Structure formats: C-alpha cells, structure tokens
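hey all, quick one before standup. I had two proteins in the batch that finished overnight and I want to keep them in one place so we stop losing track of which output belongs to which input. First protein below, input sequence then structure tokens straight from the run.
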Amino acid sequence: GAEVLFSVDCTKLRDYFLPADGAFSCIYFNFPHCGRKAGVMKNRALLAQFFSSCAEVLAEKGEVHVALCNGQGGTPADRPRRAWHNSWQIVAMAAGARFILSDVHPFNAENIHGYKCTGYRSQDKSFSIEGALNHVFTRSTPLPPLKPMICQMELGSRRVSFQVPQVLVDKINRGFLELNSDHPVRTVKEKLTAVLRQAFPIQSIDCSLPLLHQGHISGVCHSNVFWIVPSPEENACTEQMANGPANAVLFSHADFCKDTDENGWMKVQEGNLISEQICLRPSLLLYVQTLIERATFLPGTLYVLSGPVFRKCPISPHSLPVFHEAVFLCAVDKGMENSCIQMLADTIRSGIHSLHQTVSGCKLNITLQEATSFETTELNDFAAFEAQVTKIQHFVCVETDALGSCEKGCCVGSTSTARDGPKSSDLVAVFASVNLDLLAMLICGIADWRMLWTSDERFLSQFPGGELRVFKSFSLYPPSYVHDVSFWVPDGEQFDEVAFHTIARQVSRETVVSIQLIDSFQQSETGRKSLCYRLTYQSCDKALSCQEVAEMQLLFREEIRQCLRVTLR
C-alpha cells in the first residue's frame, strides 16, 4: 500500500512532493554518501542541502532520521570519535536548516524487515555498519530577534517608560512564579516553603514589589547593575512607544554600557541629564527594611517574598544575569538571632537534600560554611552581592558534578532593624536569600541556566503539573564555534570586563558560553595595552549555524568598538 518513487534528488524534495500530499511526519536517510571516494567536505555539503530540503516538506513536529557509519557524525556518541575536522559534522550541517539533534541510538539492520546494506563504493556489495548510529533531528525554535522593547512599570506613585536592556528582552514578565505556572522554579519555591512551614509560622508577602529600584545602592559596584534611562514621555502608552512615535527617546545598548564616572554612575551626554538613579532591582533584600516597617509585620513570623532580580555578571553556565530570588524574613529578639539563623540554615539544607533525593535518588553533599571563610572574589555573583549589602553568617554550599565545584545557592544572615516603637531596638531581622534558579538546576539536573528560560515547549512538557523530574535535554551535542578578538585598550582607562561580557550576551542572544583572556600585551615604548579574548558560541536549546555565529562576531566587534572605545586589531 505504499507509493514508491525512484531517482528522487534528496536535496530537492519539494520538487517531487506536492503541498497537497501533506507534510511528512518522518524522513529517513540511511547512510547518505556522495559516491565512490568522496571526501568529508562533499558529504557535509550533501547533508547540509538534504536538511535544507527536509525543512520544506517536514511537518512542524516531524523528525529526520539519518543513519551514519561509526565515526562519521563527529558526535561524542561515536565510538571511537573522530576529530571534528575529519568528520561529517552532522549537528552543524543540520543547524544550518534549523534542526537540532534530539536523539541518537544504534542502527540495527536486523530490526528493519527486508533491509539490505549495499552500496560499497557504488557497487552492489555490503559495507560495514558495525557501530553505526541513527541520528534523530527535530525542528528548533528560532533565535530571538534583536529588536528594542519599551516597558512601562510602576515606580512609587508614577509610571516609568524605558527601553529594556537588550539582553533582558526575552526575560521580562515571563511569569515563572505565577499560580498557574508549572515551571520547576516555582515548584522548588513551593516545596522549600512547605519544608520551612514545619519549623516556622509562615506568611507570604502579597504585595507586588516593584521591578525598578530608585536611589543609591551601597557596597555594590554600579557597573554590575542594569541602570535604565526613563523616557521623557513617561505617560505614553506602551503600544505607542513600541511603534516609535516622534517624541519617543530610544536608547541603544551603548547608552547602557558607556560613559560612567569613577564610581560607576552613568553619565548621558548631549544635554540629556539624569536627575535620578533608577535600576532594575539587583536583589529583593533591598526591600527588607520597607517590609519590616509595615504595621502588619509580626515578629516571630517567617515572611516569604520572591521574584526575578537582575545583575550584570561574567558569562558562565552558572552566572545568571536574571534569576528568581526567594527571601525568607523573620524578626526575632536581640540575642536570639544566632539560634534562629542556625535553625533556618539547617532547615533549608535538609529541604534541599530531601528534594534532590526524591527527584534523582542520588546523595548530595550540602555543607554549611561560615561567610568569614570566603573572600568576596571567591563567591559567585549572587553570593558576593548579598555579602556586600548585609551581614551574612552562613552559605549553604552544594558540591555536585552537575553544577561544577561548589555553588552557593543560599545565604543566611541578619541585619539591623529601624522600626518605630519602644521595642524596635530589641529586634533583629534574620533572613535567608535563596537562588531558586540554581536550586532548580541542581534538583532537576539542568546543566545550563539558559535552559530555564527557553521558549521551547519540550522543556516544560517534562514537568507536567509542576512535578519535579530529572531533566533530559532535547538538544544533544550542540555544535560549538570559536572566535578570537584582539584590540587595544583606550589609554589611561581601566577595561570594563563586565560590560564586555554584557555586550557579548546581547549580540549573541546568550549563545556565548565562554570568554577567556588568552593573551595580554603591553608596548614598552608607548605603554599601550592589547588584549586578546577567545569566545566560544554554543546554544543549549536552539540550532546555531556557523554563518549565524560569524555574523554575531562581526556585530560584537563593532559593538565593543563603539561602546568600550577599543581599537580593533
């Protein structure tokens, strides 16, 4: 009952199958080859054209199966694995047509009724398929476009319109913590709150804390904060601003990363004066004092507040420019804070251990370490910030292969209170600040923070009803691409590496996974300093082609030239 077509050109499938025939749910290509002694370059081109052809006739949720002989694919699934340059680079060839490798398993000819392996050197004789692999590809979601986004938010008694920093455009207002959300970040928060409820009376903060913070932030490097520039037309509606009316003032990325004074405060030229400092909140701990001053705040009750926070930080798999923070806050009598801190830290530690044990069945090494044993430079961005703005006594440290050596996803400490009343001086605020994103990664075995923010439905489908499970990646062995950039640093200026990383995040749409300083040189005659960095591009959830990366690198070079005033070499 099947229709058989002969002499079909695999690179022009659309010419043989009419749209009326319907899209294919599955396309199989067993052991593609250009014929005779064709080299790897010709066979790569064959694969690239084949995948492009498949994209035109495959259903949206269809699959492309490609069987290759052992070693040809160039993925870690091959045993032994060929050098990348000597393989067919199948994942990179598929990426050009927006396909990702979602599964790979042994090719078993015995399971295919009537299959006969022939075609050795274009002859009617068999070839070796021992160790052959079947590669299963699916469509990828597209890379987010680089386009401005205007947002309106409440700040005190007024509404402020501003352009969202490009690196945060796809991360604003995602609603991961809303009641109808099945996202693992929300589940982790609810599970941890339930554990703490067994030891403390708990009350959730129902007020909506503003995403914007106004005023000076002591103890924090201001180059690590996302400062925003309000539009003069603060009352303009969002739709009008998005369409770019004549009176709208739009700011490019350059306005967010250059022209700061020696303290990191932003300066705007050409007559645009800033009379106030407004930023996206870098921590919920900034609101602790405000909450304590509320008349409804009851000493002895553990209050829970949560939401996304934003910080510029160097690129790494566990450095998050935006993450969800949960703060557990309690006011206790002076002299009781140490016992409360210890109890809070122990309960959180046991809760994390129990959640991880339930989901993965594996043991986890969770330690409670004194904050005084760390230098600020040793802490991750999350912990270093909290250590600077409050009195932290302990970090809950997790040692696991999934997250690297030792990640500090929670800090516990205290801060003084300034509350009206005769007993105000007798109270001390005890808090725990938890990075929910890092805990979700730990508990569900998610190796890359970017996966938490993916728009691909295959991520959330693995957590039905918010159930925590071990995550299985739907994009296997994504290709990586390496590019170097070398430049002269402006004379007399200190190079801002955080801004350098932030620009890389923006132009690459978060596809840069590593930035390494590989060379530093200073001319003895002039004192000029040259730096050379190596950027590695790789997407954890989307197809990323060599051509796309090349275009990103060119844009990156231009952006650092304009924003950081470097001289490219």
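OK second protein, same deal, sequence then tokens:
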Amino acid sequence: SELIRGFLLSGMPCPSSCPPGLLALMAPGLALMATFSLPSQAGDRRALPVEKPPGVKGRTLILLDVNTKSPVRIISENFLSLQLDPSIIHDGWLDFLSSRRLVTLARGLAPAFLRFAGKRTDFLQFHNVKNPAKSRGGPGPDYYLKNYEDDIVRSDIALDKQKGCKIAQHPDIMLELQREKAAQMHLVLLKEQFSNTYSNLTLTARSLDKLYNFADCSGLHLIFALNALRRNPNNSWNSSNALSLLKYSASKKYNISWELGNEPNNYRTLIGRSVNGSQLGKDYIQLRSLLQLIRTYSRANLYGPNIGRPRKNVIALLEGFMKVAGSTVDAVTWQHYYIDGRVAKVTDFLKTRLLDTLSDQIRKIQKVVNTYTPGKKIWLEGVGATSAGGMNNLSDSYAAGFLWLNTLGLLASQGIDVVVRHSFLDHGHNHLVDQNFNPLPDYWLSLLYKRLIGPKVLAIHVAGLQRKPRPGRVIRDKLRIYAHCTSYHNHNYVRGSITLYIINLHRSRKKIKLAGTLRDKIVHQYLLQPYGKDGLHSKSVQLNGQPLAMVDDGTLPELKPRPLRAGRTLVIPPLTMSFYVVKNVNALACRYR
C-alpha cells in the first residue's frame, strides 16, 4: 500500500501490477471537495493533510474520480432560474421586454422560472386598464420625451396586431431615450432603496400582458409575487386587489404560479407594523383558497414565504409560518446576498470564507423545513453577489462569477431544488444583461451551465498533495470541483457523459489527473476567462481564447469546446472558471432521465 500511495501522490502512472480498487485503498487520505455524498459533510471544508513519502517532491497534481453508479441529488430541470424586479415598471424597461434581443437571451437560459418580485412587490397595485397614451403634438420642452411615449404607444399597437409570440424591433433613438430615462430613474430608485422608503407602483393590464408575453416567448414559467402589505385593520391580508389581478390573468388563460410578499421579516421597517409567521401562514392559506375558487388556478403552484437571511428572528418567523402553512406551499423559499454592494471590493469575490457563508444558511433552513414538512422542496430565491443594487465593474464583472458558479454548485450538492438569480435585467449592477442588451460575464457562465449541466448531482473524490495546516488554522478550498451528469438536452454528447465544473481561486495553475472511471477518456474543455485589459473587472469574456458575443439580435454564438486527448492532465489556469465534459463514460447514473 505504501508503494501505491507513492505512485498516487507523485502523479506517476500506476504500473500494470497495481491491483483493482486502487482509489479505495487511498480512502483515508482523500480530501472530499465541493460535492459530498452525505449532507452532514457539506459544511466541512477542511483539507485533510496527506503525508508525503520520502523522496517525493511537492506537486500540484490532483487525482479526481467520480461516483458514476448513482446520483447523490436530483434537482429541478429549472434549477437555474431568473428574476425580474418590479422596478422595471418605474424605469420603463418593462416596455422593452418584447425586444428580439432580450427574448433571444432569455430563451438561451430556458427552461427556467421567471420570478417577478423584489423590494417593490409589496407596493405594487394592479389596475385593469389598458392605459393607452393619447396622441401628442407640437414641439415643446418635453417634445422628445412625448415622442418617446408616442413611440411606446405605436409599438404597443403594432404588437397587438401580431398573433402568438409578440416581438418588437425598437429603433436606436428609442432605446437611447429609454436609457436616458432609466439613468434618471436609477437615482430615484437608489434613494428609495437606501432610505427603505418606497413609492407605490401601478401595474396595468397592458403591462401584465407584456410581462407574460416575454416569459411565454422565452420559454420561461412566470411566478408572480402579490402584494402582502395590503392589510385589514385586524392585520389580516386584504386580497381585493390580488383577486382583481387573478381574475384578469385567468380571463387571458395565463399559466402563472404565485407567491405572496417579499422578505416579510422586513415589514416593520417598511410600514412600522410587523406580520408574524403565524399570520403570514394564514394569509397563504387565504391565497390558496382564492386560487382554488378560480378554475384556471385551482391547481396552480404556490411558493413562499421568501424570508431574508435566516437570523434568529427570521428563523422564528419561518417556524411560525411552517406550523400553519407548511403543507400549503409547494416549495419553501428564502433569499441571500453575499456582500453589501456599497463597500464591495474585487478581492471580496476571491475569499473562500465568503463562498462558504451559504452552507450554514442552508443547514438552518433545512432544519426548520424538515422539522415540520420533511422532504418539502427548498428554493433559494433572489440570490445575488451584492445587495443595494450592486457596484459597477464589480458585481457585473468576471470576478462576480466565482460567487455565482460556487453558489450553483453548493446549492445543487446540498439538494436545494431551484435557485433564482436576481436579476435578468434591472436598474442596478447585479444583472445578467446590461441596459444596452449586451450579455455580461454571469450570463455566459449561466448559458454554459444550462447547456452542459444536467439535474443529477454526482459525488466526487479528490486526492492530492495539500499544504500542512498551521495549528488552529482551517485551510479552505481554493479549488472547487463539482460534478453532474451532462445535460440530456445537449445532443452533442451521448447519455452517460459527465460534466465537471471547476473554480480555481489560486493565483497559480493547478493540474488534475482523471482517475477511475474517468481515466483515459476524451475530454471537451470549456475554459471561461476575462477578455480585454480589465482582467477580473472585465465585462467581457472569452471561451477557450475566443471572445463571446451575440451573432445578431436573434442568434447566440456557438459554444465551441476544445477537445483534449484521452488521458491528458487537465491544467486549470489561475483565477478561472471552467467546464469539462468527460465523454463516453457510460455512467450508470447518467444513462436514463
């Protein structure tokens, strides 16, 4: 066994005399990283020191094997989903959701949920009017703005004439005026956010039509969060406005799932009056009763309570909710933001301690949910790198991808069924698509994930040389490795293939040798790196050395892999994210859906 250990640790090929079950003999020295086969191991990220045999020099070679017999988790086909904030009503972007370019970008991430919710959910009022603007004329101080509003009306009229999926081609001048309007509104929205004081928003029937058209055209399933802060004198939920919205949606036969409210733990700071978990549970039961009265939504899904970070008071709220309405919701939801966007630095996105903060939250949520409704699905909604709208050149840069990809891997490995990314398009800097409708680094990362990653999560086993920990100091993994069955929707790979995705936070390259069932298989590399002189701050990326950009408004680029010869060592460049499809593994766990 000492001889075998020496060969493994040195990275030398094992002679033919090595017995079967080689890696099993190394079990005491394995360092399980990123994806664990047991939930109890998920939060233990300490590296296990591996003793060096005499005469073996330290190397960066790491041996990697995957359990291909059965998945440790199976997540939703819609695991990576999207969010739109109601602020798009305020700043005008909702009127541009019919843009061919936006629809093309959203289609690339289907199938997925589209959650319409955010800070302004509980200030949203529905009015069942089409609200067409009247024709304007004559130059004046607001002539261009008036012309812009008229252009919106003309665009709406043209859309109304289309059947089925309604797609618009907006003139450049119209988009330029919209960006000017949005820039002005951005300051207003930020002021509201920092003061935690929000103005009421009106959602018209026409606006709801545009929202649903975008979701439907893009292959996304709409989840609409209703206003929970319309309260009766006894603090129960006033459902009259929600009922009006439900009836209109049903009349249009819109296929929608529902939520009630957003971060109910913050209601006291918003309106000076709190809603406890028990009352919120009763409100959800009331909403479920409303849905059952409307034939279109009698079997609609209901999700909640969308609490904030699970601190002590929030856990108490969740417990009160689960006692009353745990069986009423189809999934339990919460949300998480890693950093205060006002003080974020690029080095924050490289801190392993920050990447690991989510594990503790997952355990807290799972403990409560499993106490009251064992086996109930759990979703993380409204997740983003930073709060407070994010920071330009940080939360919308390549660097933010380390948090995003690790979030996807960590949640999948711990059995969280769906993660909803805030936001697809909005006024801040946490979005996937900017206001020129150009995809940002996290969009391309999400697109690769959708194309390559299937819902079956696999356990990995890693062995390699680790530096010896100092007394009392925990070594956190700067090399994160996750494994899934390759997506069944990707017809470039036969069933039974496996996809690895790897985050290298080291400032040096790392070498990985595939072992066991992965040994001597052809591998396709998808290496995502920043493009241009801005480095980690870059808003552009390259895939295997080729910059990524849309071909035209209706076409996404081909994501071309770099084939690696069978048996070749994987070389992971420093500060990068990458995907590796191991072809023709014929993994038992991945043969069938």
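Flagging for whoever picks this up: DSSP finds 15 helices and 24 strands in the chain. The domain at 61-127+156-464+475-588 is CATH 3.20.20.80 (TIM Barrel).
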